[in-house]
């Protein structure tokens, strides 16, 4: 007759504890059915689900484990598991799994409580909770911290759209980001990341900066804002804005290019992606002049953006086809994936405007970055509280892995 017992051990983390406990079990050829260990602030939580023949002296084995745990200053608890309970546990391994990622400058108890409450109400069981972000030093300014907690959950929500809507609502109310994605083989196997440029890789809309230099800043900014919110067709709005730039001296391009600032986390993200072998691309409705500068600075592999026609040292205001609009971005993402020999599931797209939605929709991971409300609601995932390097957390990377 077989007996199944769950052994839980808690106490100060000590080198050699796992070897000591499993060494006792090994003497009776105990079968390990499940095992897990976590250390939080030098406190150990260790669990082993074991199966052993009752005739081998089960009570003697457990007594030895209890005594050894006492010597190592540990609390030991034994819980018998019935055959029916074990069968239900085995059956549960076939359920779908998802990852819930919580991002904020500082993680609070309310954040955890709200996320865990929603997952429970939608029938999802939390299997693991892990901190991906590094340890935050005491006294660090609140706007400089990075916090990330990852929940591994089991089950399939009956209404995924409603679940996402609730996550989005509390994210906006608590000033956090919450991502919900399927835990598939593709999650840590993405190979291509494409970025919008303006207000994504750089902290500005270049066409607005050009318009200021041309004395038509307010007119162009208003058109840009409406286009990014999805209120205007991008192509027609682009032609309208370009016409307002006619006659601007080309000499202002270099000055504006030097003044552009990278978005928080952009340099870190691109450097880590390159280190990990990812291909990167800029797919921008902005201008190739500035995109190519970023390409050289960051080591971007591909650049597709709009031309800025010049004659006699002046911007003509004309438009050169094809315009890189939303549909063109999606088409380019497909082309690049095919060129790299990967599936769309292995791609990531990042952008902030309505013209980014087509590529965000078809990418394996579409991220709306500090985006307009319409874009945040429509995209698969959104990051607004952290910098671009927060995307690494969505891929499951930890700060201690060199990030």
Give your account of this protein's structure.
- InterPro entries: ACT-like_dom_sf (IPR045865), ACT_dom (IPR002912), HAD-like_SerB (IPR050582), HAD-like_sf (IPR036412), HAD_sf (IPR023214), PSP (IPR004469), PSP_ACT (IPR049148).
- It catalyses: O-phospho-L-serine + H2O = L-serine + phosphate; O-phospho-D-serine + H2O = D-serine + phosphate.
- The protein is of the alpha/beta class and 403 residues long.
- The protein folds into three domains: 2-91, ACT domain (Alpha-Beta Plaits, 2-Layer Sandwich); 96-182, ACT domain (Alpha-Beta Plaits, 2-Layer Sandwich), CATH 3.30.70.260; 192-401, HAD superfamily/HAD-like (Rossmann fold, 3-Layer(aba) Sandwich).
- It contains 15 helices and 16 strands.
- A six-stranded parallel sheet has the order 11-10-9-14-15-16, with helices on both faces. It has a four-stranded antiparallel sheet with strand order 2-3-1-4. The chain has a four-stranded antiparallel sheet with strand order 6-7-5-8.
- The two termini are 50 Å apart.
Helix/sheet category: alpha/beta
Question: Distance between the terminal alpha carbons, to the nearest Å?
Answer: 50 Å
- CATH homologous superfamily title of the largest domain: HAD superfamily/HAD-like
Q: Assign an overall shape.
A: elongated
Highest CATH level, the class of the largest domain: Alpha Beta
Q: Helix count?
A: 15
Mean pLDDT: 92
